[in-house]
Structures are given as structure tokens and as C-alpha cells.
Design brief:
alpha+beta, four-stranded antiparallel β-sheet, 13 helices, 4 strands, globular
Length: 295
């Protein structure tokens, strides 16, 4: 598979909810160790990527894992002039980034998204999923699982109650309806639902409104808002490209989606990455966005 110019598999996988499904085995080389098509090796050689699995692997799945199903520059071109000018510094700074998803691993994306709540994703969520794979095997969700075997955190305890309910959900094809359905599961709020949609579907409109996105929105002046998505409303009112919610005119998620469309998920992913690399480390002197930042 041919890769886009300046593409980085490291940047692309690191902020994705599918990151715990992979293990880095060398420079530009990853092995899929959890979920569907486990045992696949992905190696980057210059402008090409090669995915191999003794049992076979679909090109569609490999394209999703690498994020090359999606082109953020194409979405930038669709924005209004004012929106484009605000977001271009972030897009330029992360030209090597794409959105790594896996539509064949939706159950694992749900687990990853659920366990990411109020904890360090890379320190804890990845460790818990790795422990479950070590205990039950690489396709551990295909059998009864005691999630507490991975640790004593409240996230794992809550997942043990919520995951069986998720497995019984009949997912409607409409993403707005699916978002409502997901938030009727105990422990699933707007951030978990939007992360699940972003990383398990080809749904780049979906942007989890976490602290990383909010920080970059404020520093780059991407939109103005006065409210965050709330489960009591999001579980009741339809909200995708259009919304029936009475608070939509104030809500970050709706305003953001209406302003940036299918670039929304990319901006959130880049915001997470940028916050981890620069803002949270106070590396302002090295920051590629320092001229655009209001701090």
C-alpha cells in the first residue's frame, strides 16, 4: 500500500483507541496482538506499507489501521476561509498524522474507549488490555471474561457490568441514533460514545470533547462555546450533523462538528497528540503552534 507524503505510523497509532491492539516490534514495524487478524505484521518501508498475516488480512482493514482511508487535507479544502485559517497551523504541524481505526474490532474499541475514562490511556488502558490478552488470549472477547483479572480499578469493575449490555445492543446504522443507544449503557457518556464512533467507524465527524480538545480549541480560538455535551441530553436528543437538542447552540461538540465537519475527529486526534507532546510538558519554546497560540 502506498502511503501519503510525510506519513508517520507512530504518530497515527499513538493517539488512537486501537493502539492497545498493536505492539511495536521495530522501527516502523508493528504486530497486531489483539483482536481480528491478530498475528498480522505491518512494516513501513519508505513510501510503502506491507501487511502480512499467514491466515490472510483484508486490505480494507490494513488501510484503516494505518489511517490511510482518510485524507485531512481534502477536508480542510471544504472549510470556510475563516475556519480554514484557524485550523491550518494544527493541520500543517501534523501532516504525518491520520486517524487509525478498526471497524473489524468494534468490541475491542468499545473496551479501549470505556477503560480510557479518568486514567492514563498509555499507562493503564494499554496495560489492562495487554493483561487480558495474556490471560485469555488475543481474541479474549470471544469467550467469557472476568475483567477484574486485569486489575482492581473501578474502570475494570464497571466494564464487567457494562460490556454484557453492550454485546446485546443492536446497533442502528444511523450514527446519531447509535450515539443515543450507546449512552443508554451504564458508564457510557458522550466522550466514550464519541471515541467509540470515531475509532470503530469511518466517522471522522465524531470528536470526543476531552480536556485535550478543549485546551487546543481555547489556544487556537477554533470555536466559541459555553457548554459541553452532557449525558442527560445526549442520551435523549439526536445529534449528528443536525441536532434536535435544545442546547445545541451552546454545545462544543455540535458547534465544532458543524464548523469543521469531517475534519473534527482529526482535530481532536491532533489535539490529544499535541497536548501530550507539548502543552502538558510546558515545551512552549519548541512548540510548532507557538505563533498561533493565545497562551
Amino acid at each position: 500500500m502506498r502511503l501519503p507524503d510525510e506519513y508517520s505510523v507512530e504518530l497515527t497509532l499513538y493517539p488512537s483507541m486501537i493502539y492497545p491492539l498493536f505492539s511495536r516490534v521495530g522501527k516502523g514495524e508493528y504486530a497486531k496482538v489483539v483482536g481480528r487478524y491478530h498475528g498480522t505484521s505491518i512494516k513501513i518501508a519508505g513510501s510503502l506499507a506491507v501487511a502480512k498475516n499467514p491466515r490472510g488480512v483484508s486490505a480494507r482493514a490494513a488501510e484503516e489501521w494505518l489511517g490511510i482511508w482518510y485524507d485531512p487535507l481534502e477536508e480542510v479544502s471544504k472549510l470556510s476561509r475563516s475556519s480554514r485559517s484557524r485550523v491550518e497551523p494544527l493541520v500543517e504541524a501534523y501532516r504525518g498524522l491520520r486517524i487509525a481505526i478498526s471497524s473489524v474490532d468494534r468490541e475491542y474499541v468499545f473496551v479501549s474507549s470505556f477503560l480510557s475514562q479518568n486514567t492514563s490511556f498509555h499507562a493503564n488502558t494499554c496495560r489492562w488490555i495487554s493483561a487480558l490478552a495474556e490471560t485469555y488470549g488475543p481474541e479474549f472477547l470471544e469467550k467469557p471474561v472476568d475483567f477484574s483479572r486485569a486489575g482492581s480499578s473501578y474502570q475494570l469493575a464497571r466494564l464487567g457490568k457494562s460490556y454484557p449490555i453492550y454485546r446485546e445492543v443492536e446497533e442502528p446504522p444511523d450514527l446519531g441514533e447509535l450515539r443515543i443507544t450507546l449512552m443508554r449503557i451504564p458508564g457510557v457518556g458522550p466522550k466514550v460514545a464519541d471515541a467509540y464512533l470515531l475509532f470503530s467507524r469511518r466517522a471522522p465527524e465524531s470528536a470526543p470533547c476531552d480536556v485535550h480538545l478543549r485546551r487546543i480549541v481555547a489556544r487556537l480560538g477554533l470555536v466559541e462555546y459555553s457548554a459541553l455535551p452532557a449525558k442527560n441530553l445526549c442520551s435523549k436528543y439526536y445529534c449528528w450533523v443536525e441536532s434536535s437538542c435544545p442546547k445545541k447552540g451552546e454545545c462544543l461538540r455540535y458547534i465544532f462538528m458543524r464548523t469543521y465537519g469531517k475534519l473534527s475527529g482529526f482535530i481532536q486526534t491532533a489535539s490529544y497528540l499535541h497536548d501530550k507532546l507539548y502543552c502538558s510538558r510546558n515545551r512552549c519554546g519548541e512548540c510548532p503552534l507557538r505563533e498561533a497560540c493565545s497562551r
